[in-house]
Amino acid sequence: MNMVKKIVDKRNYIILFVIIILIILILWSLFFGKNKPYIESFNYYGETITFMVYDKVDYKKLSNEINNIYKKYDDMDFNGELSEDEKALIEYGKILYYKTDGYIDITDGKLIDSLKKGKTYDFKSDIEKLDSDNLIDDISLNFDSIIGSYATNEVLYYFKQNDIKKYIVSENGDIVAGDYYDDGKYVISINKPNSDEVMDIVYLENKAMATRSKSDDFESYMVNPKSSKKENKYDSVIVIANDGLTANMLVNSLYIMDKDEGKKLVLDYNGEAMWINDDDIDMTDGFASYLKK
């Protein structure tokens, strides 16, 4: 009987020891282990925008905040008395016009609509007439190529205010990367145009990368407001810049610019670019530093 009691006591001690070890492992994983990232996708402006956040966050609160920001811009109609956010977006559009020497023009709405229908349209910019305090009915505004990156930038400003630093955002293939969550950097593939074949690998941290590619579908970034024509000069253009707004501005301009003009613009804003046409690949001097060796 004493022997049985000793065996039972010994077994109880073993079970207790295992339970203690499990508790220690659980506590260790909670306090020192890697957190599962917050991952969620949002569908706005005809795009899928996916967030991966590696900082510890309140999932529900963050989802609501992101959704509210995107919805605010999706609901804008620029009719009647303009909100402060609508005015700010218009002013940003005017800034882009001057930064890109007219290659981005938010007053080209009628040109976009005409080319979509296969019609020609002799476009003349109304940017000088554009006043966010007194909109003119005849000016047809178009924010298609800028509104996604603009709203995402506001989300990332919210991140900054709330000390969210470790993230990567994909907006229909355009990438904005924050601090890396572990040793190393985020790894992004550059595929051959209209293919799943990986051509190069890019390392990103606290940078943005934007891509525009030739397509049979009509895309607003293909329209050159300076010539009133649709452009398809390149199979693909890729830009790396310090932030998403700059990358978006540069790639939309470079896609419709001559290459020499594009090289000057991208370097003016501390960016790097790659142009792909069939097997012809050209890039700015610093682009290779982002590629996997």
CATH superfamily of the largest domain: ApbE-like domains
Spatial order of strands in the largest sheet: 1-2-3-4-7-10-11-12
Number of helices: 7
How many domains? The number is: 2
Order of helices and strands: HEEHHHHEEEEEEEEHHEE
Could you explain the architecture of this structure?
It is a single chain. The termini are far apart. The strands form three sheets. The chain has an eight-stranded antiparallel beta sheet with strand order 1-2-3-4-7-10-11-12, covered by helices on one side. By secondary structure, the chain is α+β, with helices and mostly antiparallel strands. The radius of gyration is 25 Å and the shape is globular. It has seven helices and twelve strands. The protein folds into two domains: 1-33; 38-290, T-fold (Roll). β1 (38-44) and β2 (47-53) form a beta hairpin. Residues 1-11 and 24-33 have low confidence and may be disordered.
Compact summary:
This protein has 293 residues and is of the alpha+beta class.
Task: Offer a few descriptive terms.
single chain, 293 residues, alpha+beta, T-fold, two-stranded antiparallel ribbon, 22% strand, disordered N terminus
Topology summary:
Blueprint: H1 2-31, E1 38-44, E2 47-53, H2 59-74, H3 84-99, H4 109-116, H5 147-161, E3 167-171, E4 174-177, E5 186-191, E6 198-204, E7 207-213, E8 223-224, E9 229-230, E10 236-241, H6 244-254, H7 259-268, E11 272-277, E12 280-283
Helix pairs in contact: 2-5
